[in-house]
Every structure is written in structure tokens, then in C-alpha cells.
From TrEMBL:
Organism: Muraenolepis orangiensis
CDD domains, per the entry: PDS5
One GO process term, biological-process aspect: cell division
Compartments where located: Nucleus
Region feature (Disordered): 1121-1162
Example of a GO cellular component annotation carried by this entry: nucleus
Protein name: PDS5 cohesin associated factor B
Keyword annotations: Cell cycle, Cell division, Mitosis, Nucleus, Repeat
Pfam families per UniProt: PDS5
């Protein structure tokens, strides 16, 4: 063959038959025609045609001349390229061209012709495809391996193919390109960095997005050549990662993107690269570590990847660099979804990161867990969901919001929409309770978000009415007690805000005056406190008031919205119209509009209207009739009915007008006849709240209801009797007639020998006394003197009468509250009777025949009665200091339940601002309670009461004359005086007793001093100094008592000095001391003496008071009584009332309190009740 080639150099060119000479002397068209015939000839030849190969050798050499390779016509070049491709096929394995330069020119020429593949619609595309197919099948380019410039040829070929590939090419084109390029890599001795870059550049995200087909081609090539190309890829990454030689390639800056892409293509390409990445993780360069972590996160989190499990030491959750920890947390979501088997390991890491000091990381922990949970609840365990739950109380609003919204979306998906089945719904059933518990938070943002979640996720307002009420019905039946309270509070707050807006509308419509402007401003301030960021909201609410004044249409729409008769559909229309009217399309960001939306969102009745109440009543009826399967919803039918009536009862307070339909009232009538007492009680309360216009609007129902109410009042259970009386009082115009019809038979029928039947009559008579004291003035006074005191309270029978005695006490108190005056001195007598019960520990006869539970109940009833009377000014004035102190000591009662119930009653009266401020000091005695939960609860009561009073003073700036009775700081003198008279404080200088005094004072002062508003610390210090200049008004001549007073003052002063840095400043006001408790300060007397023993100094540790957390123990159930071991020195026993055989006496009480212990009870009663005349009334029978 070599000899033939030598001869061919001088031989004449032989053309195929019919083809004349091809030269520059013929036209282009003729040249194309002749070349096509040559192409056909070479196409038909095969490698075995030796004669033809010899014959056309010179033609083959002629076609490779510069004349053809550089010809200006593309058709000529294409035909020549096809001929050359066939020549390489025919003469293989030895090409007829021996010059390296010529071979380079030929292959560069062929490569340039391959660019014609780009236009798939070209008429010549098939020839271009034939060219590609030919050189790929023959592997023509492999001839170049021996050439010095082979890398240049291969690189140009690769670039050309990656450039021309597009979505118009079919699978065959793609396959031939891969075949052509893979043969070069697999059969060559080396892969240059330049050639490797030509392939890898198509994996870089920017190039990948520009030419997806080039990416797919590179991906297919790498998969085909994985084994051959892997060493060169490893060397490239080694140069860049380990040696830092970034100059070896222009792709060095994309090294991490390339690693990820290569891993996704074929993990075997990176067998030697992972150790290099591990080395990089130890770098001191934060950005470098971050890049590696981002890469590993994507590789580890990828589906079907085993790297995460195999390389757990590479997880960088605890890295010092915040962005790295953040990236790891983001990776956790993908890992949870793609590798559920790693959930346990991830839980441990996420637990730590959920408490990360960085807000963004805590936020992304929630996002990761919630994202996985929304994909499939099975992917997250209870521990992970608990992390989200914990973050609902995070200090940062952004984190709290994300946690709350995350839980809400999980609840809606798996509970509301039912995805995942009953098991999934059961697993996340706690979410609804937790979300509503957040309503206890002080932050208005939290409360608003809970309201939004309730309206959009828990009971979506856009559901059809019957479906919406069904959701609400079963939700209410499954909530825990604290969540129910929160939900009720939410409706109550929305209702109050609705009323405030209605008041603002009324004020705006009034003629302008200075008084009306002040009233508008005061109402604006109240509304502002119900919106986010009150500082900014104040200006916006002012602006809204001005808009309402100027724009009658908006005012009318808002009036419709806050109207009790507004329907849910009307509310939606009103909200839409108001926001549309206020909003401006030119202002994409409108803070004023956002504030208005917040306000409308809170006041719009999107859940409850007349139609909704009717649907809810029907749902209750279905449960009563048994036509719905409550069990399927996870609620026993009895509980569902009870909860449904309880829900209606709550709504009857906030939406009474919505109940005004015959169908609703008829259903409630049916509930009154049910055996379940709770159901009937709820129905009665609903009638009381909603039946104001029932007599005139629904006379048929009135005629049926009245006999039922009278029967309940006479013979129903006590609570039903109470509500029946209140129903009659609220609903009927001629109530006096109806009251008389009930009073007379009950009064005549009272029989002390039949105690079981006394409770209902006494309850009914007590509420009649409260509601109509003047109507039954004479018989009630006789009833109390003759029956209640002589026949009931003075007789000591068996424990069955205890409840009757309690009802007797309540009847006396209700009677006094109804009368509301002490002209006949009945109040003094009643107070003496109540304190006698407390003196005797509940056993008035002191014969030891009563069981301890009965004594406890009577002590509690007497103490609560005192609290009730103290809420009425005319009786508060006549309560002596001794009686007040005796009542206060009940909070340290030996019985746990007595302490608990008494503190709750005390708290309720204080929260309503009904009890005077001195009763707030009673909580100071709780510092000695041996049960931790009781102390925590008392502290929360103090916190809430202090906040309520401060908030009230902010809202009512004009009540300066009542400052003495409202300002929380004024509780300090009462607390000091109460502790001075504590029966446990006997020895003035006793260190242990002084330590208890110090703890009790700090129990109150810690909360009072938590905020130093208006220099209140100096005010408290001045108050204590002033007390030291007075004497105890209870016994001014008793030197020991006054020494106690000054000693307690010194304890208080030392606490203030140790806990405050501003106490020495000037007091903003001169404190006023209560004259009932302290004598007037003696200006000639300067009491600078320190009454504390020197050893007491070590008890006062410096430090700022801790801010009180209002939520602290609110949702935590109190421990059962008697479960904690107490020290012997404890003055309270945490015994249960179940042991009636234990000694009922209270040694502390009898040891320290003064009272007529040895006085026979009959003379005691005569002493207390001697002022009661016994009238001869025909209504009172003789015995």
C-alpha cells in the first residue's frame, strides 16, 4: 500500500465512470453534480474492494487538497467531507494520508462541516447526519491519537458537537455524538485538562440552563466513559482542592457545582474526591467550609444517596460559623424526606439547633421539620414536632410565627382535610390545644395570629355554614379545658373590640365639642391597644376616626359590620368594600390599610350569625336524636351534646341576637327536658342571655317555657334552680308575680328535718333575695333569723346537712347583697357569724362531732362569703381589721382544697376590681405554702392583678382620685400590716420567723418592683419610711406590736435597697397611708433605729427583680393534694379532705387567734344575732 501511494503521487487522477475532471475550471453547480457522483461511488465501496481502492487512490489524495478543503461553497465542502469520511472507512485501518499536517487539516475540516448539524430543517441535514454517522461508526478520529496536535483536534470536535446539539435532534444524532466522543476518551492514552473542561463546562449551572441538550450530552458521555475518565477528574479536583492550583482550569471556581453534578450523574466518578472534601471541612476559611457544606448537604440529601449514612462525622451541625449551621439545618429537610432511616440521628442534631442562639437557625429548624411533615407525617417523629411546639414560645416573633403557622398547616392537612387517615389525625390532635394556649401570651401579635389561624386553619370561615358549624362543634368537644378558656376569651375579646368600635362610631356622629373629642381620643386609645405596634397604630386609628367622620359610606359599612344582626356574608362584603374604599392602587404598601385590615379581621363576625347558630343547634339535635355518628369524630355522644350546649352558652354571651329564632328556642326547650344536668344548665343560661325579647317576639315559646322554669326553681337541681330564677328575672316583665308564686310555697315548705330536700329551696330563696330584696324584705329577715341561724346553722347533725348549711350561708349573703345597706345592722351580725365559723375551724358547736371535710367546706363557705360582702362598699366599711385578717389566713388553711378554692375566689374578685386593694396583700401569705404549684399559681394571680390595675390606670387617666385604691404600689402598706399580725410571727427578733417575713414581702415586692415606672422604687421606699413614723392603728399603745411593725418595715427597706439602684431618688409623690391601719405620722418623732438583728444582713442578696412571666403556670395543672412531703415546721398541712377520722382542730388557729373558744355556742349565737327582731309573719310557721 505504501508503494502504491508512492506511485500515486505522479499518476493521473481517475474518476468514477461518468464523472469528468473536477477542477476550478468548472462551475459550482457542475462541481456539485460531479462530487455527488463521487460520493455515491465511495459510499458503495467497501474495505474489500482492493482494485477500486488502488484505482481511486489518487482521487482520494486529490479530494484532500487545499482546493477542496478551503473551497468557499458549503455544499462543495459538505460533499468533500462525506467523501473523506468514506475514504477513512474504506482505507481503514491505514488512511491514504501520511502527512501529520494534512491529517490535522482534514479532521479540522470535517469538524467544521459538522456545524451543519445545527440546522435540522436544512435540505442538506441528511448528508450532515451521514457524515456524523460515518465518522462515529468508523471511529475515524482515533487516527489522530499519534498526532502532536491531537488535543487541539479533539477539543475542537467536542466544542463543535456541544454547540450544535439542540432539541431538534433525535435520539440517533445524540447516540452517534456520544459514540464518537466516548471512543476518543476510552481508546486514547490520556484526557487533557482542556478536553476535560470542554465536557465539564456543560455541567456548570449557568451553561446547563442555557443549553439543556448539551448538558444531557455531557451527562451521557460521562456515564459512558465513567471508568476511563475518573482518574482525570480526580486529578483535576486534587489540583484545585488539595494543592490550590486554581490556574489549571477556568472551571476552578465552579468546582463544588461540578462535584454535585458529577455525583448526580454517577457517584463512581467521585470515588477519590470525598476524602478531599473531608480535608476541606477542616479549613480555617469559613467561606471555603461553607461551600463544602453546601455541596455535601445536596449530595447527602439526594434521593437514593447513601453518603449521609456512611459519612455521619461530616455533618457540620455544630460548626462555629452561623451560615454553615444554617445550611446543615436546611439539608435536614431533604434528608428527612429522602432518608427516613436517619430521622433518629437528625433529631439529636435538630434538638440542639432548635435552641441555637441565632434566630435564623431556629427559624429554619421549624421550616425543615414542617416541610417534611407536610410531605408525609410519618417522616417526622413526635420529638421533632415537639421542637416546633417549643418554638411557639420563642423570644423572637419571626420564629414564633413560623412555628405557629407550621403547626396550623400540619393540623389543617392531617386533621381538617383528613390526609393520612385517623392515625395521623390522632398523632397531631394536640396541635389545636397548643395553638389556642398561645392566646394566653401577652403579645398582641401572638393573639392576633391565633385568631387568624382559628379562622383560616382550624375552622375555615369560607366553609359552607353547616360544615363550618360541624367543624366547630367537634373541635369544641375535643379541646382541653385551658384551650376552651382561651377560645372563649378570644370570642370575648373580639366582642369587646366590636363594642369599642361601635362606641367610636357613636361618638364620631355626635356634634364636635371638647368633651366629644376627649371621648373619641379615649376610645381610640382603647382600640389601639388591640392592634399590633400600638405606637404606630394610634396615629392610624386617629386617621380612621377622621375618615369615619368624613365618609358616610364607610361609616355605614362599619356600622353594619359591628351590628349584632350582621351575617357572615354581609361581613365579607363590608370588609371588602371598606378596604377597597380606603386602599389606593397607587400605593402598593399602605400601612394604614394594613392596620384597618387587622381591625376588621378582629371585629368581623366571619363564623357566627343567625344561620350559623341554627346550623349548630341542628348539629346538637342530631347528636341528641342519634342520627350522627359522634364516635367517628372521636367524641362520645354525651360529651358531644354537653360540649355543644356549652359552646352555645358561650356564644350566647357574645352573639345573643343570633339566637333569636323559633327553631333555636324550641331546640333549647327540648334540652331543658333532658336528664343530663349539665345540658339543662347550659340551656337555662342560654335562655337567660338571649331571651330578653322572647316574651314579645315568641309568645308561644314563653307560655311553654314559664312552667318549666317555675318547676326547675322549685324542684330542680340547685344550679338549675339558680338559673331558672335568673331566667325569669331577665325575660319576663311581671317577674314579681312569678317570684311570689315560687317564694311562698318554698318558704312554707322548709323542713330542717329533711336536709336532702333543703338545698334547692335554699338556693332558690337565696337568689330571690338577691334579685328582689325589697319584695320579700320582711319574710326574708325572719327566715334568716329563725330558720337559717336557729334551725340550720345552730344544730349539729350529720355531714349530710353540710351542703344545706352552705346554701344557708349563701342565702344570707345574697340577701345582704340584694339589700345593699346596713341600716338594720344585719351586715355586722352576719360578719360576726361568719368569723365565728372561721374561729371555730368550721365546727360552731366545738364538740368534735363534725368530720374534717365538712369543717373544711364550712370554713371555705364562710371565707368566700366574707369576700363576697367585701366587694360591696357598704359592707366593706364595717369589716373590722380582725375579721379581714382572719379571712386572709384562710389562704394558709391546713386543707389544700380550701387554700386552692379560696385563692381562686380571691383572684376573681380582684381581677374584676371589685375587692379592695388590701385583699391583694393576702397573696403575700402564699409564700409559705408548702406546695410549689400553689406558690406558682399565687404568683401568677399577683402578676395578672398588678397588670390589670396598671392597664386600667393607663386607660382611665382621669381616675387620679381613685389612685389610692388602684395603684399596685399601695399594696405594700397592707402587706406589711398583715404580716405584722401573722399568728406565726411571735418573737420579734427570731431569725427564722424574720426569714419567713422576708420571703413573704419579697413574694409581693418582686412583682411590684419588676418595672420601675415613674420612679416607683423611690415611691415604695418613701412609703416604708413613712410607716416607720407611725404606729399600728389596731393597737397604737402596744409597744411589742409597734416594734413588730418597725421590724417588718426594716425588712422591706433592706429588700428595696438590695434589689433596686434607684430607690434613693426623689419620690414622685408623697404616699398616702391608710388611716384604718396606721396612725398619722408624728412630725416630732424620727424613727431612724434599725430593728433588725445583725445576722439578718446575709439574707438580703443584691440583684434586680425578675420580670414576671404571665404564662408561667397558667396551663400547668396543680399537683394533687398530699403528694409532696412537707417539713415539720410547715404551718400548713397538705392533707386531703377524705380522712374524716383525723383530728379536725387546727393548732395554729387555736393557738394564736383570740376568740370566744370556751363560750357556749348558744350564747355566742345570741350575742351575734340579738339585734335581729323576730317578726310574727303569717309566712313563717311556728315550731
Amino acid at each position: 500500500m505504501a508503494h502504491s501511494k508512492a506511485r500515486a503521487a505522479d499518476a493521473k487522477v481517475t474518476y468514477p465512470p461518468g464523472v469528468k475532471e473536477i477542477s476550478d475550471k468548472i462551475s459550482k453547480e457542475e462541481m456539485v453534480r460531479r462530487l455527488k457522483m463521487v460520493v455515491k461511488t465511495f459510499m458503495d465501496m467497501d474495505q474489500d474492494s482492493e482494485e477500486e481502492k488502488e484505482l481511486y487512490l489518487n482521487l482520494a489524495l486529490h479530494l484532500a487538497s487545499d482546493f477542496f478543503l478551503k473551497h468557499p461553497d458549503k455544499d462543495v465542502r459538505l460533499l468533500v467531507a462525506c467523501c473523506l469520511a468514506d475514504i477513512f472507512r474504506i482505507y481503514a485501518p491505514e488512511a491514504p494520508y501520511t502527512s501529520p499536517d494534512k491529517l490535522k487539516d482534514i479532521f479540522m475540516f470535517i469538524t467544521r462541516q459538522l456545524k451543519g448539524l445545527e440546522d435540522t430543517k436544512s435540505a442538506q441535514f441528511n448528508r450532515y447526519f451521514y457524515l456524523l454517522e460515518n465518522i462515529a461508526w468508523v471511529k475515524s478520529y482515533n487516527i489522530c491519537f499519534e498526532l502532536e496536535d491531537s488535543n487541539e483536534i479533539f477539543t475542537q470536535l467536542y466544542r463543535t458537537l456541544f454547540q450544535v446539539i439542540n432539541n431538534g435532534h433525535n435520539q440517533k444524532v445524540h447516540m452517534h455524538m456520544v459514540d464518537l466522543m466516548s471512543s476518543i476518551i476510552c481508546e486514547g492514552d490520556t484526557v487533557s485538562q482542556e478536553l476535560l473542561d470542554t465536557v465539564l463546562v456543560n455541567l456548570v449551572p449557568a451553561h446547563k440552563n442555557l443549553n439543556k441538550q448539551a448538558y444531557d450530552l455531557a451527562k451521557a458521555l460521562l456515564k459512558r466513559t465513567a471508568q476511563a475518565i475518573e482518574p482525570y477528574i480526580t486529578n483535576f479536583f486534587n489540583q484545585v482542592l488539595m494543592l490550590g492550583k486554581t490556574s489549571v482550569s477556568d472551571l476552578s471556581e465552579h468546582v463544588f457545582d461540578l462535584i454535585l453534578e458529577l455525583y448526580n450523574i454517577d457517584s463512581h466518578l467521585l470515588l477519590s474526591v470525598l476524602p478531599q472534601l473531608e480535608f476541606k471541612l477542616k479549613s480555617n476559611d469559613n467561606d471555603e467550609r461553607l461551600q463544602v457544606v453546601k455541596l455535601l448537604a445536596k449530595m447527602f440529601g439526594a434521593k437514593d444517596s447513601e453518603l449521609a449514612g456512611q459519612n455521619k462525622p461530616l455533618w457540620q451541625f455544630n460548626d462555629i460559623h452561623v451560615p454553615i449551621r444554617l445550611e446543615c439545618v436546611k439539608f435536614a429537610s431533604h434528608c428527612l424526606m429522602n432518608h427516613p432511616d436517619l430521622a433518629k440521628d437528625l433529631t439529636e442534631f435538630l434538638k440542639v439547633r432548635s435552641h441555637d442562639p441565632e434566630e435564623a437557625i431556629r427559624h429554619d429548624v421549624i421550616v425543615s421539620i414542617v416541610t417534611a411533615a407536610k410531605k408525609d407525617l410519618a417522616l417526622v417523629n413526635d420529638a421533632l414536632l415537639n421542637f416546633v411546639k417549643e418554638r411557639t414560645l420563642d423570644k423572637r416573633w419571626r420564629v414564633r410565627k413560623e412555628a405557629m403557622m407550621g403547626l396550623a398547616s400540619i393540623y389543617r392537612k392531617y386533621s381538617l382535610e383528613g390526609e393520612g387517615g385517623r392515625e395521623a389525625s390522632k398523632q397531631i390532635s394536640w396541635i389545636k390545644d397548643k395553638l389556642l394556649h398561645i392566646y394566653y401570651q401577652n403579645s398582641i401579635d401572638d393573639r392576633l395570629l391565633v385568631e387568624r389561624i382559628f379562622a383560616q386553619y382550624m375552622v375555615p370561615h369560607n366553609l359552607e355554614t353547616s360544615e363550618r358549624m360541624k367543624r366547630l362543634y367537634y373541635l369544641y368537644a375535643t379541646l382541653d379545658p385551658n384551650a376552651l378558656k382561651a377560645l372563649n376569651e378570644m370570642w370575648k375579646c373580639q366582642n369587646m373590640l366590636r363594642h369599642n368600635v361601635k362606641d367610636l362610631l357613636d361618638l364620631v356622629k355626635q356634634p364636635k365639642s371638647e368633651a366629644s373629642s376627649k371621648a373619641v381620643f379615649a376610645k381610640v386609645m382603647v382600640i389601639t391597644r388591640n392592634l399590633p405596634d400600638p405606637g404606630k397604630a394610634q396615629d392610624f386609628v386617629k386617621k380612621l376616626a377622621q375618615v369615619l367622620e368624613d365618609d358616610e359610606r364607610i361609616r355605614d359599612q362599619l356600622e353594619t359590620l359591628v351590628s349584632p344582626a350582621c351575617s357572615c356574608k354581609q361581613a365579607e362584603v363590608c370588609v371588602r368594600d371598606i378596604t377597597k374604599k380606603i386602599g389606593s392602587p397607587k400605593q402598593p404598601s399602605n400601612p394604614f390599610l394594613e392596620m384597618v385590615k387587622f381591625l376588621l379581621e378582629r371585629i368581623a363576625p366571619v363564623h357566627i350569625d343567625t344561620e350559623s347558630i341554627s346550623a349548630l343547634v341542628k348539629q346538637v339535635n342530631k347528636s341528641i336524636d342519634g342520627t350522627t355518628d359522634d364516635e367517628e369524630e372521636g367524641v362520645p355522644t354525651d360529651e358531644a351534646i354537653r360540649a355543644g350546649l356549652e359552646l352555645l352558652k358561650v356564644l350566647s354571651f357574645t352573639h345573643p341576637v343570633s339566637f333569636h329564632s323559633a327553631e333555636t328556642f324550641e331546640s333549647l326547650l327540648g334540652c331543658l327536658k333532658m336528664e343530663d344536668e349539665k345540658v339543662a344548665e347550659a340551656a337555662l343560661q342560654i335562655f337567660k342571655n338571649t331571651g330578653g325579647k322572647l316574651e314579645e317576639s315568641f309568645p308561644n315559646i314563653k307560655s311553654v317555657l314559664l312552667p318549666v322554669l317555675q318547676n326547675k326553681a322549685k324542684r330542680g337541681p340547685p344550679r338549675q334552680a339558680k338559673y331558672a330564677i335568673h331566667c325569669i328575672n331577665a325575660m319576663f316583665t311581671n317577674r314579681d308575680t312569678h317570684f311570689a308564686q315560687i317564694f311562698e310555697p318554698l318558704h312554707k315548705g322548709l323542713d330542717p328535718s329533711n336536709l336532702e330536700t333543703l338545698i334547692t329551696p335554699l338556693t332558690t330563696l337565696g337568689h330571690l333575695a338577691l334579685l328582689a330584696p325589697e319584695q320579700f324584705a320582711a319574710p326574708l329577715k325572719s327566715l334568716v333569723a329563725n330558720f337559717i341561724v336557729k334551725d340550720l346553722l345552730m344544730n349539729d347533725r350529720v355531714s349530710a346537712e353540710t351542703m344545706a348549711k352552705i346554701q344557708g350561708i349563701k342565702l344570707m349573703v345574697r340577701w345582704l347583697l340584694g339589700v345593699k345597706n346596713n341600716q338594720s345592722k344585719s351586715g355586722n351580725s352576719t360578719l360576726r357569724m361568719l368569723t365565728a365559723i372561721l374561729h371555730s375551724d368550721g365546727d360552731l358547736t366545738e364538740q368534735g362531732k363534725m368530720g374534717k371535710p365538712d369543717m373544711s367546706r364550712l370554713r371555705l363557705a364562710a371565707a368566700c362569703a366574707l369576700l363576697k360582702l367585701a366587694q360591696e362598699p357598704c359592707y366593706h366599711e364595717i369589716i373590722t381589721l380582725e375579721q379581714y385578717q382572719l379571712c386572709a389566713l384562710v389562704i394558709n388553711d391546713e386543707c389544700y382544697q380550701v387554700r386552692q378554692c379560696f385563692s381562686q375566689k380571691l383572684h376573681r374578685g380582684l381581677c374584676r376590681l371589685r375587692l379592695p386593694l388590701e385583699y391583694l396583700a393576702v397573696f403575700a401569705l402564699c409564700a409559705k405554702d408548702p406546695v410549689k404549684e400553689r406558690r406558682a399559681h399565687a404568683r401568677q394571680c399577683l402578676v395578672k392583678n398588678v397588670n390589670i390595675r396598671r392597664e386600667y390606670l393607663k386607660q382611665h387617666a382621669a381616675v387620679s382620685e381613685k389612685l389610692f385604691s388602684l395603684l399596685p404600689e399601695y399594696v405594700v402598706p397592707y402587706a406589711i400590716h398583715l404580716l405584722v399580725h401573722d399568728p406565726d410571727y411571735v418573737k420579734v427578733q427570731d431569725l427564722e420567723q424574720l426569714k419567713e417575713i422576708k420571703e413573704s414581702l419579697w413574694f409581693v415586692l418582686e412583682i411590684i418592683m419588676a418595672k420601675n415606672e415613674n420612679n416607683s422604687h423611690a415611691f415604695i421606699r418613701k412609703m416604708v419610711e413613712n410607716i416607720k413614723q407611725t404606729k399600728d392603728a389596731q393597737a397604737p399603745a402596744d409597744p411589742k406590736l409597734n416594734e413588730k411593725l418597725y421590724t417588718v418595715c426594716d425588712v422591706a427597706m433592706n429588700i428595696i435597697m438590695s434589689k433596686s439602684t434607684t430607690y434613693s431618688l426623689e419620690s414622685p409623690k408623697d404616699p398616702v397611708l391608710p388611716s384604718r391601719y396606721f396612725t398619722k405620722p408624728d412630725k416630732n418623732f424620727s424613727n431612724a433605729k434599725n430593728y433588725l438583728p445583725p445576722e439578718m444582713k446575709s439574707f438580703f442578696t443584691p440583684g434586680k427583680p425578675k420580670a414576671a412571666n404571665v404564662l408561667g403556670a397558667v396551663n400547668k395543672p396543680l399537683a394533687a393534694a398530699g403528694k409532696q412531703l412537707q417539713s415539720k415546721a410547715s404551718r400548713m398541712e397538705t392533707t386531703s379532705n377524705e380522712d374524716s377520722t383525723s383530728n379536725p382542730s387546727s393548732p395554729q388557729r387555736s393557738k394564736t387567734r383570740s376568740g370566744p373558744e370556751n363560750t357556749p355556742f348558744q350564747s355566742l349565737a345570741r350575742k351575734y344575732w340579738v339585734r335581729y327582731p323576730i317578726p310574727h309573719s303569717p309566712l313563717i310557721g311556728t315550731r
